[in-house]
Amino acid sequence: MIELTGLTTRPAQVWGGVRLVPLVRETPIEDLRLDVRLYDEDFGVVAVDPRTAYYSYIPHGYVATWDHAPAAAYGTQLLDPADRTRAPDRMALRFHRRMARRVDKNRLRFLPLHLALEGYLALHFGGPEIAWEEWSQRAIRHGLSPRVEEAYTGALVRGLDDALRVFEIHAGQCGLLVYVADALASAFVVPHPADYRALHATLLLDLYGELIYHYAMLSMPVPDFRARVADANVRSLADLRAEAARQHEEWAAFHDGAMAAGLLEADYTYERVYDLGPYRLSRFLPPFERRRDNHIGEVITGESGQVAYLKTFRLSENQVRRGRLLTVLAANDWSLPGTATALGVTEPELGRRIENAGFGHLLRQDVRDHYRARRRAG
Amino acid sequence: METMADLIAADDVLLFVNAAITSTGQREFHSGAEEQSLSLGFLHRYLLVNYRDLYAATLALDINDHNAALIVRNLLVTAAEVDVERRRAEGRLIARRLELLPPPRVYALFRELRRARVNNRRTRAIMRDWLAARPDPAFDAVKYRGAVKDAVRHAHLRPDREEDGELGPFLFAFRRPAAYWTPILETWRRAHYEQAALYDLPYTVAEGFAAKHRIPRATFLERIAPRLTRLERLRLQESARERGAGAVRADLTTMPLTRLASYVLGLSMDERARRRGELTGALRASARRTAGDQAGRWGRVVAVLDDSFSAYGSGTKRRRPLAVALACHFLLEALAADYTPLWVSGRDDALLVHPHGATPLGERILDGLDRGPERLVIVSDGWDNAPPGLAGEVLRVWRTRLDPGHTCGIVHLNPVYDAAGFDVRRLAPTVPTAGIRDAEDLVALAELARFAEGRTGLPALRAHLDRRVAAFLGEQT
């Protein structure tokens, strides 16, 4: 469960196939802010008083110049007021000449694709823990490495650039849910409106799964949820005002209960990464149920569990299938017969699924041939 | 008895008038330049083919210069398709409209006609008459040299038939004469060699010579100041101030209202707060001048003004919708006996408005109706998004259930042409929407808007257009 307490859903803004739902925080979180060095460098404004003590965070994949070289933050980072000067864990980036020049102007924020999916990729990265005879030598020695997933930057998602450009940021807005063809593509929440304004454009540099890319490519414009006032209830201006207020409540309830249910109500597995003061940074993995939204992401929560920072990535159907396969395999200690029973299929069928998921090389060649022969026999 | 075709015709014409007032074929907040000009081009074509007489008659309305030039061009390109009488009527409208257009735009139109290879007799006659009516041909020849040359060549004119015959050599063989008798031509010749001479030339021409002579920008601005036109002065004031050329100072009180509002919005917040008295005074003075004898006669007025993020416009029309809203604010203040402005963002300091935030238009309209005004004026691009469609619902319910007797006159003025809808965006069918380009036209538009309310017959519209055409053509005598 993800609790969006303190955040109110405001009416969506639609542009083509993209629906953007703003989240507004009544009381902004003041003691957790975007790292001031990013503010100084990239936005040219110091929006926070440097003397006050506050915790700071650096979003995952954020490129900035630390120690004179451009580098991307590796995983979202939480920093103590005391280590304000420490450079975050990062991954140096080597740019072509042209790109480096753009970084120098502090205009480019670049998310290294292979980094962003780390949480998902690390899933059972080690491979089989018990060396059952079916697994190949390679699987046992090297695990699932190299493990690669593909994703698209927001700039490639059709219509997203225009939708973000014409989006009107609400007063006090601290978050945004991006829907493409009414499929929830990503959720983004920050602690403070100033941070949101600074990071709004970076949504275009974020990663979106293959599913979102195709939906955007193929979808028709989605309809607005337009306000409807029932004439019969209105006898005075006050009634009309009450009706107008009801529109807001109805929309918020509908959105949180229906549209975002897949994100908010799923059963996540959290992995704690770092605790700092009242804040906890964790990564989470979805239950990998098929035919549902499955989101992976990073979240910073406060003491009472309210979300201060959130960033999610929606897995495509194939990724969910792979994730589920790996989860079930791991749960059954990588035993093929055990897993087949757990999934309710025959062993050769499981072999086919492993091959289709792109993990065929993990099985010994003779085992694969054997399975294939048995499938053919019937 | 009115036929369906008549109603459709009336709708089409109103649609076109709205487009011709607002659209300039430039990028807007929601649509690109290509979309805008494609959409506008279609409307022009559609009207030209189906209602040519009404199309020509719109020249008499307060449409913007871009569209006026387009209409003139389209009429001249297809002049052969109509009979002599119709052509003559069109010719009169065109001639009158060209008198009102700024000269650069007319010269651009002539060049456009040349590119389109339109050289019929009517076109040549129109060019000849317009050029003959210019007050100072020599000045034009210096300021718009290339364009004048093209026009003269295209219309087969001999510019030097009377006078002392210097324009011909000046345009076509300027190296030949050792000196000119006409003072401005002689100044222009000397400016090639003598720095002091260029300060007697028009600013745009002098700028080129200043670059040639490598005169520092500050010195140049300081000395060219007396030659600047009113709008050049307004435009250059800030950059001149930065460079320390204090001589460039515009008299803000004489500026047109919407231009002035644009200028104010171009200043930083600190600057606006610092010069609050001066700027407010200038805006008020300009608004009072625009209001004229209507001042104070509009009764109790509430305005809902859009300062949401989309009022930023685009890089090419920077803050235009917001400038129109700001100008309307000051104009309505002058027109009304009792005036309440309601900015959509909830801010109440008009001088410090900036485009930011969402558009909860419906709630603002409710606030406005709460105050029980005689007139409610809404200035907005019609993108109501928090929640979408609430403004339309509020207005619909207000008209049908709460105020069926029209005790409160509501009008929606929209400064932005919606390319996808071929019209300005409307809020509700029960409330008239009119396109607006300059706040100065507000009074006339509020009147025209009643045609947009419900369905107006073609005869009424035709009568209105005939009256406007007669007035338009009658002004010249």
From TrEMBL, chain A:
Domain ARG and Rhodanese-Phosphatase-superfamily-associated: 2-277
Any single Pfam family the record assigns to this protein: ARPP-2
Superkingdom of this protein's organism: Bacteria
Record protein name field: ARG and Rhodanese-Phosphatase-superfamily-associated domain-containing protein
Lineage of the species this protein comes from: Bacteria, Bacillati, Actinomycetota, Actinomycetes, Streptosporangiales
TrEMBL record, chain B:
Top-level taxonomic group: Bacteria
Designated name of the protein: VWA domain-containing protein
Species classification: Bacteria, Bacillati, Actinomycetota, Actinomycetes, Streptosporangiales
